[in-house]
Amino acid sequence: MSNNLTRRTLMKSAAAAGLATAFAGRPALAADEPLGIALVIPSPIGDVGWGHALAAGIDPIKAAYGDKVKVTVIENIAEGPDADRIMNKTVADGNHFLIAGSFGYQNGALQIARRNPKVTVLHASGFQVAPNFSPFAAKYFQGTYLLGMAAAAVSKTGKLGSVSAFAIPELITSINAFTLGAQAVKPDIEVSVVWVNSWFDPAKEQEATKALMSQGCDVIFSNAQDTPSVISACEEAGVYSFNLNSSMKKYAEKTYLGCVATDWSPFFKASVDAHLAGTFKGANTFLGVADKVVEVVDWNPAIPADTMTKIKEIETKIADGSFSPFTGPITKADGSEGVASGTTLTDAQIVAMDWHVKGVTTPLPK
């Protein structure tokens, strides 16, 4: 993940482009030539977090295609000239399928796509689109709504917390859905947020976790941290916690509430299929439960059975499209109307969200 503050602030531009999945019109690869796939990420893969989830998304492709693909994973590449140079080299080396795993790679990766029309580029979290260039993002909010229901059910104080990276729409929507899910179980629930302004800062994350605990928060959402620091600190204090992207259960065997996991393999596999068939078409791709990209895993057995029954019912409705966490009436934190009764926010409106719902007690940073 990028540590650039503008990582999602420009996502409002995506609304005009439309949010869809990727496919239709370029020459297919020669049948006897293995497809070179390169994944470039800005941090070490490690055993948890964003980079780990991206790398895991390629494993099923290797299993499905065998010697028809050749995969290269290049980790810990800083955004900027180094990333541009390395991505260009991967293409020069014969890789015709590039996954650029950070927002800050966008400009360099887009230029590669424009100069190399036979190369397909997938770009994490951006907004630019070209015939052979697709940005992709996850509907984390669908999972955080469900974990909000669970959090409210196990909370004794009625106060929940979130250690969050940056105040960008992706993370704002995750917090808002978390709050709305909790309020569906306990209407008076409150959520406090500490913004650490980093994707990867164990010391800040632990400090923020302790600050939330001191306010009485007894369930804490690790919102886009690439380290298990929040989860570990909660386990030590006996406080429930959950996170995004990949399971951190081994760091909190007792108090881990669950994980909003991302499985990028369906999207990656479909994109590789389209590339090989010569039918790939770049589009802004926003994927969730229905796409089998977002799934809540590692549910804690302490969650009451009746709550789990309700959670599973809502999960089914999210998957079939009959329920959205962002259907009104929804009130903003400042008391004004956020979503009118009977109205459901579109994907474009969700990725541009810059306000908190009522119940989130921490003002957004200016």
Describe this structure in words.
The structure is a single chain. A hairpin with a 5-residue loop joins strand 13 (330-331) and strand 14 (337-339). Mean pLDDT is 90; it is low at 1-29. The relative contact order is 0.17. The chain contains 12 helices and 14 strands. The protein has helices at 14-17, 50-56, 59-65, 81-92, 106-115, 140-154, 169-185, 202-214, 229-237, 265-277, 305-320, 347-350; strands at residues 35-40, 69-74, 95-100, 120-124, 133-138, 159-164, 190-195, 219-223, 240-245, 256-262, 285-287, 294-297, 330-331, 337-339. The radius of gyration is 20 Å and the shape is globular. The strands form 3 sheets. A 6-stranded parallel sheet has the order 2-1-3-4-5-11, sandwiched between helices. It has a 6-stranded mixed sheet with strand order 7-6-8-9-10-12, with helices on both faces. It has 366 residues and is α/β, with parallel strands linked by helices. Helices cover 35% and strands 19% of the residues. Helix 6 (140-154) packs antiparallel against helix 11 and helix 8 (202-214) runs parallel beside helix 9 (229-237). Pfam families: Bmp (PF02608). This is BMP family ABC transporter substrate-binding protein. Keywords: Signal. Residues 1-30 form the signal peptide. Residues 37-319 form the ABC transporter substrate-binding protein PnrA-like domain.
Strand order of the largest sheet: 2-1-3-4-5-11
Oligomerization = single chain
What characteristic shape results from the CA principal axes? globular
User: Which runs of at least 5 residues are low in confidence (pLDDT < 50)?
Assistant: 1-29
* Averaged pLDDT: 90
What's the SSE pattern? Answer: HEHHEHEHEEHEHEHEHEEHEEHEEH
**Count of alpha and pi helical runs:** 12
Instruction: Give me the secondary-structure category.
Output: alpha/beta
Biggest sheet, open or closed, and with what strands and sense? 6 strands, parallel
Strand content: 15-25%
Radius of gyration: 20 Å
* Portion of residues within helices: 25-40%
Distance between the termini: 22 Å
Number of strands: 14
Pfam family, one: Bmp
Protein name: BMP family ABC transporter substrate-binding protein
Domain ABC transporter substrate-binding protein PnrA-like: 37-319
Organism: Rhizobium bangladeshense
